[in-house]
Amino acid sequence: MKADQHRCFARLPALVLAAIAGGVGGCQSYQPRPIDAAAHRAAFLGRTADSPEVADFARQLSKANPGGSETFDPADGLSLSEGEVVALVFNRDLRLARLRAGVSAAEARHAGLWEDPVLGTDLTRVIQSTEHPWKVFTTVGFTIPLSGRLEVEKKRAAAKHQADIVRAWAQEWTTRVDLKRRWVEWSSARERAAVVKELVARLDQIVGIVDRVAEAGEMTKVGSRLFKIERATRAAELAALESEVGQGELAVKSLLGLPPSATVSLTPRLSLSDATIGGSGDAMEPSDRNVALAVARAEVAIAERSVELEVRKQYPDLTIGPGYGREDGQDQFLLGLSIPLPFLNRNRQGIATAEAERELTRVGYEAASEQVAGDLADALLRRRTAIAQRETFEREVVPLVDEQYADARRIAELGEVNTLVLLETLTRQQEAKVRLIEARAAESLAFIRLEELIGPP
Q: Is residue 364 helix, strand or coil?
């Protein structure tokens, strides 16, 4: 082999190896991260309402809003507002939503990068006898994005990340609203159980009175047995309500992100006011604060960037490939240029699909706006109805049945027992109190629904 051929082959490996080494040296290595189920279970079971991460988050909220809510101190019982802080830290759906936003954030950080250069080598040996049988050409290809699509890719990735942030924000709001619902439902079950428990205690007292009257022969055993039947029925109802209270507490703990075995004293809260909702009026329109509309707007923004990107893709990018070669004993400089001609394809399928998706998201926003308007009207109607029912029971029904029970009790203590009147009075009193609790819960749930539709402040 001639001296120039030796020089050629000496340069080629050095050039290729240097390029490969430079590229591979900057590559990231793989690091496995297997699931540690035991560690996660231990961490989950160790969560408490006053965990350090919750306390730290509560301090951050307090600094951001100095004149805001109560001081975070779950030691004296976990209130609803304190529970919201715990849920914002530990709720599993929220953690997943934030991690999804992290995925799109990683995508956005690295969007719009130039394609890696392509190193190519063409090695040829002439079979026939010749003075210079070897031909060697090495090129490095670069794609120059003349179309401007890389900037649009960055915009689209940023829009996707913004949409994931909005979804996480919407999930935070949904979690807070769901927690309020579960808290009110649990408080309602707790109060209803207390009413039935009080009724059972009163029936125990009445059973003693009617037994004495029956023994004196002033009342039939059939009449006295009615109270025992009612007492057993209410005891079974109380057992069911106590189970409902336990299930409600588990549901609250689940939304808080705490384990079922967590020891936490929840502070009941049944009644919520307009002040809690943010001063909801009787005439409302869907606002920019509504989370469903915010997510729909974010999806429209993604669709807009997608159309822009597909339009950009129809314009060609320039591929340039400078290189070095040696042929017939002579060094040569190479320069390859290529550019697609947008005559046939022009990315018409991609553009048409993106435009159709944009129209879908636009109409989706309009449909969501119409739905929210209807839901607001329904929520306002339910709130007015709930307020009217609560006021009727509070001002009229409950005072009347209390008065009726007091009169019937005094008559019974004097030995004049009208079995049916006394039993009817007891059951009506219990039913009225339960209906009042349900009306208060319905009013609070109507307020919560309005708050959900209006959106976070």
A: helix
CA 274, CA 242: separation in Å to the nearest integer?
A: 30
H or E element at residue 13:
helix 3-25
| Residues 6 or more apart whose Cβ sits within 8 Å of residue 407 | none
What is the mean predicted confidence (pLDDT) over 397-424?
A: 72
Q: Which phi and psi angles does 25 have, rounded to 5°?
A: -60, -30
Tell me if 250 sits within 8 A of 260, measured CB to CB: yes
**How many angstroms separate the CA atoms of 3 and 267, rounded?**
92
Compute the chain's Rg from CA coordinates. Answer: 38
Helices vs strands, H then E, count in the chain? 12, 4
Sheet holding 318-327, edge to edge: 118-125, 134-144, 318-327, 330-338
Q: How far apart are CA 366 and CA 373, in angstroms?
A: 11
Highest-scoring range by mean pLDDT, 119-133, 352-366, 377-391, 401-415: 352-366
Q: How far is CA 356 from CA 38, 304, 307, 315, 416, in A?
A: 48, 11, 9, 21, 81
SS3 content of the chain, % helix, strand, coil (to 5): 70, 10, 25
The DSSP string of 337-355 is EE---TTS-TTHHHHHHHH
